[in-house]
Amino acid sequence: MTAYATNGWTALGDPTRRAIFERLVEHPQAVTELARELPVSRPAVSQHLKVLKNAGLVVDRQAGRHRIYQVNPDGLGALRAELDLFWSKTLAAYKTIVEQRPEEVK
Amino acid sequence: MSTQTQETTVQAQIVVDAPLERAFSVFTEDFGSFKPPEHNLLEVEIAETVFEPRAGGHLYDRGVDGSECRWARVLAYEPPHRVLLTWDISPQWQLETDLEKTSEWEVRFIAEAPQRTRVEIEHRNLARHGAGWEAVRDGVAAPDGWPLYLQRFAQVVKD
Questions:
Q1: In this predicted complex, what is the ipTM?
Q2: What is the C-alpha separation between B20 and B112, in angstroms, rounded?
Q3: Model pTM?
Q4: Which one of B3, B14, B138 makes the best mutation probe of the A interface by having the most chain A beta carbons within 10 Å?
Q5: Of B91, B93, B95, B48, which is closest to residue B69 (Cα–Cα)?
Q6: CB within 8 A of B68, min separation 6: which ones?
Q7: Res. B129: pLDDT tops 50
Q8: What are the CA-CA distances from residue B31 to residues A52, A57, B14, B24 (Å)?
Q9: Nearest-CA residue of chain A relative to B139?
Q10: Residues of A at the B interface (Cβ-Cβ below 8 Å)?
Q11: Using CA atoms, how far apart are residues A50 and A99, in angstroms rounded to an integer?
């Protein structure tokens, strides 16, 4: 485990971890379910979940034979991730608009 | 930067092929043209987004029915270099009326070349939304499922 992986922002820099986090935002689920939907192995999913957990972005609980993961509602991590996404999208769209030739805009 | 600062701050930046003045004017005057369309707290479609170009002004959405959502206050307006606004939206994606519980975002415009500008955003003091997190936690524990902010987030990431 690298030291910077505990930072939520960095943890979401990896596309697979981002995909896992986005699925957990939709609903809590177990490793097996995540591994079925993603093109990565079950051990790899577990490893990514460990990083997300260390970053405070997700929490887990035991439910029978399964361990269920969900987005951590009790930390700032999810809010940061959400705002990070908001600003990334905003800036990307802004770049498109601002780089249009001046005569193309009003 | 301290760990605590990192935890309560979000940073983003982009370099655009546009001169400084244009980068600033498009960002402020045309904010509504590029902000994510799902960012709408009104019950109706947004007719226009208005960025009042002065400290003490607001950044607000006006709906097609005339309703308004003033979701940011302009704290500093310094063309063409910097603006500083508040984020008056709770983690539940509702308008925050308690101004103690709002964060702030600063946008800096830096000329890298005559035709190239770097735009840096720092959204900070996120912990001020703190009290909202208890409500979020309660919402998650409630039988009717996920709170609104997670639904909104899911919409955002699906686009």
A1: 0.77
A2: 9
A3: 0.66
A4: B14
A5: B95
A6: B42, B60, B61, B62
A7: yes
A8: 33, 30, 15, 10
A9: A73
A10: 7-9, 22, 25-27, 71, 73-76, 78-99, 102, 105
A11: 41
